[in-house]
Design goal:
Layout lengths: L8 H7 L10 E2 H4 L14 E11 L4 E4 L8 H6 L5 H13 L12 E4 L5 E3 L4 H18 L5 E11 L1 H17 L3 E10 L2 E13 L8 E6 H13 L6 H9 L28 E2 L19 E2 L2
Parallel strand pairs: 1-3, 3-5, 4-6
Antiparallel strand pairs: 2-6, 4-5, 7-8, 8-9, 10-11
Helix pairs in contact: 4-5, 6-7
């Protein structure tokens, strides 16, 4: 038994509730949804998945993927809304073996989408709660800062510029009812499973469905395209309409997208995809690209 561990953790929490204990346990799926109300999420802009074992500051653990998300950390101890028996069992085990939280914890899994805030995910939700409190108790008793050692972590790196531009352009499309359809995918690269390629499909029907322009763009190319559309507030410049009408736009016959500074290079379409010609309904409860009674384009 550690010298500082001279009382039960539950009793210590009752007498010394940490200030952060009143914080809400955040929900991973709410903070980083697969689809938000506009039909997309940050997970579609992941370009690298980094898996490693690391020591984690308990103060940076802010939530879970489910279970006790929505409660405060203190409520998860005193009035757990998921499995009270498991919390009581973990409290009993930490009193009999507090050393457990100071050795390798590689069977606890944490995920992050910004490299700063961590969420327990798939394994270790109950132990993460107990771990935060036992390390707080150890710090209060000894004056030393402690980390959860050798935790299994997965960090999803997001192309933030691309995500922000996609979000701004999507909002413009929705608000002005611009006839442009977007779809973003994050696809694992062959032979490099940790690295992903962001592919964004753009379909422009502003000149009519018989003159649609479309293609899959890389993140870099999409940023160029989105900046141009945002600069023009979703409207065709006059010179563009003239060239389009005269057939002077490069790739006119092939219905290729055109925008200033384009490289002319398209990425290959993701495996097994189907793109709807109808933009996702922001008020629909269904995610975009589900089966609909609309015309489909298979590339």
């Amino acid at each position: 038994m550690m010298n500082w561990k001279n009382e039960q953790l539950f009793d210590w929490i009752c007498e010394n509730p940490p200030a952060w204990g009143h914080n809400i346990i955040r929900n991973l799926d709410h903070d980083y949804p697969v689809y938000n109300e506009y039909g997309f999420g940050a997970r579609q802009f992941v370009y690298l998945i980094e898996r490693t074992s690391r020591n984690v500051d308990p103060d940076t653990i802010v939530g879970q993927w489910d279970h006790y998300a929505g409660q405060t950390w203190l409520d998860a101890i005193f009035n757990p809304n998921y499995k009270p028996g498991k919390i009581r069992n973990c409290l009993s085990k930490v009193d009999s073996n507090p050393d457990y939280y100071f050795a390798s914890l590689n069977d606890i899994h944490l995920s992050s989408f910004d490299g700063k805030n961590w969420y327990s995910h798939t394994s270790g939700n109950h132990r993460t709660i107990i771990g935060k409190f036992i390390l707080a108790m150890a710090q209060a008793k000894t004056g030393n800062k402690y980390f959860l050692p050798s935790v299994s972590t997965t960090c999803y790196h997001i192309d933030q510029e691309c995500f922000d531009l996609y979000r701004k352009l999507s909002l413009l499309i929705q608000e002005k009812k611009v006839k442009i359809t977007l779809d973003a995918r994050s696809e694992p690269m062959e032979l490099l499973a940790s690295r992903h390629e962001i592919k964004i499909f753009v379909m422009d029907d502003r000149m009519g469905s018989n003159y649609s322009r479309y293609g899959w763009l890389s993140a870099t190319e999409f940023c160029k395209y989105a900046k141009w559309e945002l600069e023009n507030e979703g409207e065709y410049p006059f010179w563009y309409r003239v060239k389009q009408t005269l057939g002077l736009i490069p790739g006119f016959e092939k219905r290729k997208l055109f925008y200033p500074a384009m490289s002319g290079q398209y990425v290959s379409a993701p495996r097994l995809h189907s793109i709807s010609r109808t933009p996702p309904d922001r008020h629909s409860k269904n995610p975009p690209l589900t089966k609909r009674k609309t015309k489909q384009i298979i590339l």
